[in-house]
Design brief:
Helices cover 64% and strands 0% of the residues.
Amino acid sequence: MEVARTFLHESVHAKIFAELAKAGIASNEELTSDNFPGLFDAYVEYKNGNIPAEQVQHQYMASHYVDLIATALREFDTQNHNNPEITMDHYVALAWMGLSDTKAWIDLSPEVKSLINSKRNELLSWYSYINCN
């Protein structure tokens, strides 16, 4: 499950880079609210000092892709394991992994963050890890 989550997370990064290239955007400085609105919003957060530069894409992902990643994880998992104890909340919790340094995460209420952390830990405890070295 963790490999699938990582693959999806990195695929979103690749999609962002592909969209930037398709639009002819070579740097964040060229972003506008018209050519890439969601990523532009994250870039504005960086320019305003609210997030570090390395979090611009993660902020965009946290704001626009958590549910999509969770849905893809559910589809992958149900086709491979089909554990009826796993709910959409578990997949959403996994989708947040790698995005906990974002303003979107920080802005969540303590209760929501606690639920996400609890669901993630519960789900990860059900899966065994294999050392691929």
